[in-house]
Amino acid sequence: MLSKKSRLDKDKMDQIIAEARRREKTYREQALKMYPWICARCGREFTGKKLRELTVHHKDHDHDNNPPDGSNWELLCLYCHDNEHQRYLDEEWHDKALPGDEQEPPSTFKAFAGLDALLKNKK
To answer: Domain span at residue 49?
Structure first.
């Protein structure tokens, strides 16, 4: 048997999940009316029962940003959607410098180094 606090925590969690599903249903329905049923990454088309595999991706990764014109959405299949979020997590992890680490420039090659001297010799 759950304690009173555990029951309240479970009820609150159930409410949060229900609200998220309600919002998702609303913007997903809007996106499916606005956009063709094609994955924006791989180009796969969806119809019938397979339509449930087409998801709404928030371009800015903010699930609360749902403008009525759909400008923050794109339709992605389950696989491309998972891949997009993994790329976002990987990018976020790799871009963080650890305390005390010196950031090296991505490249030290200077394509035009010494060009001014070569041009002076041409005159």
So the answer is: 13-95
